[in-house]
């Protein structure tokens, strides 16, 4: 079988890496695209000897290629993919022990809060939510048993940022690792490992797949030891990604840099339009100079992305807006080529009580936009006519 060169960030620029990392031809057949190895098991050479794979929970050639690609795109040492973003977050936490302390950014995707508050809390792991924009609060919260600080930046849906490098310095001084949920920007627009994080997590369901046709999640580790840790979780807990969905993400990744350019350009144009619209009380977008952390966004990110959140004042106003949009679809999720809009309080953050939502700033008047790659003029016209109905 032919050996193929496996490029890393040191070899190529990003757009080249996206097309080629992990995506070299099939050594057996020369197929240019990574084949979907639809098999649960593999014939062995003899007792205790295999051809590289034995059973697809432990490893599958299609999944391995996706893991190679994601390792290269995030500049890590290894990657492990799971059946959804939530399964990846579970895999991140599963190696913790009873009595360990976990610090989580106070403002995260509602599903992460649901996992921590309804499942992990029963395992005797101490979960503490900290406002990670306040570095003194983080210093105070770190304890000798703190094992992990989990960051989401920008946050869903309020677009608050955390200074990854500063958090990593504090966490490392306290002996804890830092994981970053990089879902909102994708590896094309933010590289947490280069900023000092230890693990990057994605819901690949979003920008990495990019076409809203499959769920998935990944953990990319900066250290060689993460391979053993997360491969064990794949094998022992079994929440792995199927070969078919691995293929879909591999296909999506090839156009990630191209898509992100368009997402980013559209995001900037729509945020500018919305920020001066009389029906919009507030526009949350780190690319706006009025965003309180605009300077951090410009320093830490390679773009501002296409996630924009609006305050329309009331649930009724959001209802009228969602009823009037035509190109934008009223649907949960984000990061696909098509533009979506969703009411955060009853979708992504439905798992929180109203009191907790208000505590972190999620009002009934918020609507979150995931701006797609359609023509920006059409998108602005759609938002304009929908806001007229508010
Ligand atoms: C920031 C973020 N992290 C994690 C998840 C969970 O991912 P999944 O839906 O693939 O389980 C989501 C889903 O919306 C998300 O927005």
SSE series: HHEHEHEHEHEHEEHHHEHEHEEHEH
Structural class: alpha/beta
> How many helices does DSSP assign?
14
Rounded average pLDDT: 96
Bound molecules: pyridoxal-5'-phosphate
Strand order of the largest sheet: 1-7-6-5-4-2-3
Number of strands: 12
What global shape is seen? globular
Task: Output the radius of gyration.
Answer: 21 Å
Distance between the termini: 62 Å
User: Which bin fits the share of residues in helices?
Assistant: 25-40%
**Biggest pleated sheet:** 7 strands, mixed
Give the uncertain stretches in residue-range form.
none
- Proportion of beta-strand residues: 5-15%
Description of the structure:
The protein is 36% helix and 14% strand. It has 14 helices and twelve strands. The chain has helices at 14-20, 61-74, 85-93, 110-118, 135-141, 164-173, 186-189, 225-237, 243-254, 256-275, 294-300, 315-324, 354-360, 376-388, and strands at 78-82, 101-105, 126-130, 146-152, 177-181, 199-203, 217-221, 282-284, 307-311, 329-330, 340-343, 366-370. Helix 7 links the parallel strand 5 (177-181) and strand 6. Helix 2 (61-74) runs parallel beside helix 9, helix 10 packs parallel to helix 14 and helix 12 (315-324) crosses helix 14. The radius of gyration is 21 Å and the shape is globular. It starts with 13 loop residues before the first helix and ends with a helix. The mean pLDDT is 96. The protein binds pyridoxal-5'-phosphate. The site of pyridoxal-5'-phosphate (PLP) has 15 residues, from helix 3.
